[in-house]
Task: inverse folding
């Protein structure tokens, strides 16, 4: 199985009453590299990330995460090792304040409050949103929400990251922070799959860049 | 059946109001069952998906069981079917009340589904021609569109919550309840923010900028509509007379 952390084997998928998105699609994603998928709207990029996370189930074929079939894992188990950033950050914002957004799950799980509060403050600082920590997250701009969602994903000790359109509605300064952060995490051995339309961003971070078209990898740049 | 498919929304509204009222007034199981079957047939003839509605009604079985047991335990009428010591867990009266409630609710749900066979535009126009103020009609229309969005938001948030690594199958009930509290707040706040945005968008489009609103397309009741309303009244009266 090599060093591939995610192995997508011969999967087929179609939405109800919809066209076929994938038909015998395979792809291996190494756990220590940043892989980027570029593609037009409707090419199946987000569907692919949902199939990896187990949010959607393939009709045929399997997805293996760290050699375990994701059909046998609950969403919670997948979420423990893979951090997932939704295309719409509103989906994953729950806290009553920016700081609370980072610590609510640790709070529920009864973890060491001092440790996770310090970690949360550090992350907010790294993502440039520490000054917003007492604000209601619902009133933040889309770019700020995206950074907050990403920071809250980082609260867990994840092994891999999947980011769906992380740069949309981010200004250039925050894109640079994101690039630095991804490179820093990659240096610590955390791999990532990034879905984007932004070719410059893809070139800045990607070890491998795939171009997805109609449910197939059209070409790959290493 | 083309005439049913082209039924005026006002005829459907009349039928739904009549059948729902009858469902509340009737007490015996057989008339309620007949009302339910009748509503299913009309739903089918109007082009609605009766099987889908029936499939969704399966969830009401829990209500039947719950009400039957509550009525059996707290109301001492009837013959015991299941008994634990002195406590009657299930009586024939409890079962009757459970079935009665289930049928009533099903009649209201199935008959209301008939309204969904009209387009939103037609339904709005029908209500306006029934002299219901436009603001109230618009509010109803928006809430009908808003509910599926709210449901989707709940689903997405619950999914995102699981993906944070909280294994809901393994955490205690107390932690689960705390997690649900975190689910409710953002959904409520987001709904309020969306409503605010929608209100602004409506103002921008000139909502209520004129005192009187005119319609390009007006609905007209046809002979089949009059016949349908007349037959509904006759059958409804028969139900009441022989109840």
Result:
């Amino acid at each position: 199985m090599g060093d591939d952390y995610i192995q997508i084997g011969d999967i087929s998928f179609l939405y109800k009453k919809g066209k076929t998105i994938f038909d015998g699609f395979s792809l291996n994603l190494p756990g220590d590299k940043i892989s980027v998928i570029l593609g037009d709207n409707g090419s199946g990029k987000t569907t692919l990330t949902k199939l990896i996370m187990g949010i959607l189930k393939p009709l045929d074929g399997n997805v293996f995460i760290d050699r375990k079939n994701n059909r046998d894992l609950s969403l919670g188990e997948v979420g423990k090792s893979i951090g997932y950033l939704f295309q719409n950050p509103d989906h994953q914002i729950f806290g009553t304040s920016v700081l609370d957004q980072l610590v609510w799950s640790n709070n529920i799980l009864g973890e060491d409050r001092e440790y996770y509060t310090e970690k949360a403050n550090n992350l907010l600082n790294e993502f440039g949103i520490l000054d917003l920590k007492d604000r209601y997250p619902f009133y933040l701009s889309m770019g700020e929400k995206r950074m907050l969602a990403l920071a809250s994903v980082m609260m867990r000790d994840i092994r891999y990251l999947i980011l769906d359109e992380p740069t949309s509605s981010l200004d250039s300064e925050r894109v640079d922070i994101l690039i630095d952060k991804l490179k820093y995490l990659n240096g610590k051995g955390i791999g990532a799959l990034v879905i984007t339309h932004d070719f410059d961003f893809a070139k800045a971070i990607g070890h491998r860049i795939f171009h997805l078209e109609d449910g197939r990898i059209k070409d790959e740049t290493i | 059946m083309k005439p049913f498919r082209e039924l005026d929304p006002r005829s459907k509204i009349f039928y739904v109001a009549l059948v729902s009222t009858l469902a509340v007034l009737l007490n015996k199981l057989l008339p309620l069952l007949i009302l339910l079957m009748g509503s299913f047939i009309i739903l089918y003839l109007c082009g609605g998906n009766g099987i889908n509605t029936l499939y969704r009604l399966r969830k009401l079985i829990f209500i039947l069981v719950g009400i039957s047991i509550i009525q059996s335990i707290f109301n001492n009428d009837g013959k015991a079917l299941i008994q634990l010591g002195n406590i009657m867990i299930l009586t024939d009266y409890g079962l009757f009340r459970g079935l009665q409630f289930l049928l009533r609710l099903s009649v209201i749900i199935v008959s209301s589904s008939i309204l969904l066979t009209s387009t939103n535009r037609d339904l709005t126009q029908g209500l306006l021609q029934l002299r219901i103020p436009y603001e109230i009609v618009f509010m109803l229309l928006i809430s009908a569109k808003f509910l599926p969005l709210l449901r989707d938001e709940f689903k997405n948030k619950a999914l995102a919550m699981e993906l944070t690594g909280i294994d809901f199958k393994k955490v205690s009930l107390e932690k689960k309840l705390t997690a649900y509290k975190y689910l409710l707040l953002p959904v409520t706040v987001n709904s309020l923010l969306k409503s605010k945005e929608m209100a602004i968008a409506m103002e921008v489009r000139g909502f209520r900028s004129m005192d009187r609103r005119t319609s390009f397309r007006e609905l007209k009741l046809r002979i089949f509509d009059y016949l349908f309303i007349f037959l509904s009244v006759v059958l409804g009266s028969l139900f009441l007379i022989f109840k």
Notes: Residues 150 and 231 of chain B are 39 Å apart (CA to CA). The mean pLDDT of chain B is 86.
